[in-house]
Specification:
By secondary structure, the protein is an all-alpha fold. It has 9 helices and no strands. Helix 1 (about 1-20) runs antiparallel to helix 9 (about 180-195). The radius of gyration is 18 Å and the shape is globular.
Length: about 200
């Protein structure tokens, strides 16, 4: 438990550092914008409606590669838990009604968007709801917890999956869509619910 707590703290500190230190470059041709554009494109796999396809593929992988049988547990993992997480996310967003960080960014810059690429403005409009918690993080950490323990034996796959997980949660900070607290709370939601249901995770 101490190890897991330490990992969560380290992730939080990294996200908090990025949140406090990172600012958009003024020049649209700056290499940072290319990195941000890549992260924006990567989020495609967890954006609506592609998230349903990602979920189906990961479920198929979970069943086939890990030699799981179709049973009540698979039904719980594939259908019931995602619905529960969606409802939790929906109600918490509307209860707390915390604006996304980009609102604060625009306010500080007097809503000057002239130096911002059009794709990020459009993405902000697409994500124009509340910040807390992070639906993208809930989804990706859900599958991270379910699969990571089983992927450790496959080094390359494990590295890729770890990298993908961290890129997506970091991107939510760098794209000004979430704060570090949103990310950490979303990870913890998954961890405790899966533990409560006695579903084996990391």
């Amino acid at each position: 438990m101490k190890n897991k707590t330490l990992k969560i703290i380290l992730i939080y500190l990294l996200l908090k550092y990025l949140e406090n230190k990172f600012i958009f470059p003024e020049n649209e041709n700056n290499y940072k914008w290319k990195i941000l554009y890549f992260l924006y494109k990567l989020n495609f796999i967890t954006d609506f409606p592609v998230i349903f396809i990602t979920h189906l593929l990961l479920t198929f992988f979970y069943i086939k590669k890990l030699k799981k049988k179709l049973n009540k547990k698979i039904f719980l993992i594939f259908l019931i838990l995602p619905i529960i997480f969606f409802l939790i996310k929906y109600f918490l967003k509307n209860i707390f009604s915390i604006p996304r960080p980009y609102h604060q960014y625009l306010l500080q810059n007097h809503y000057k968007i002239i130096n911002l690429p059009h794709w990020i403005i459009n993405y902000w409009k697409k994500n124009d709801n509340y910040s807390f918690p992070s639906g993208h993080t809930i989804f990706i950490s859900y599958w991270f917890f379910l699969l990571k323990k089983k992927l450790i034996k496959t080094k390359l796959l494990n590295i890729i999956f770890n990298f993908l997980f961290f890129l997506i949660i970091i991107s939510r900070i760098l794209l000004y869509l979430h704060k570090s607290e949103d990310i950490i709370f979303s990870i913890l939601i998954n961890y405790f619910i899966l533990k409560l249901l006695n579903i084996k995770i990391i």
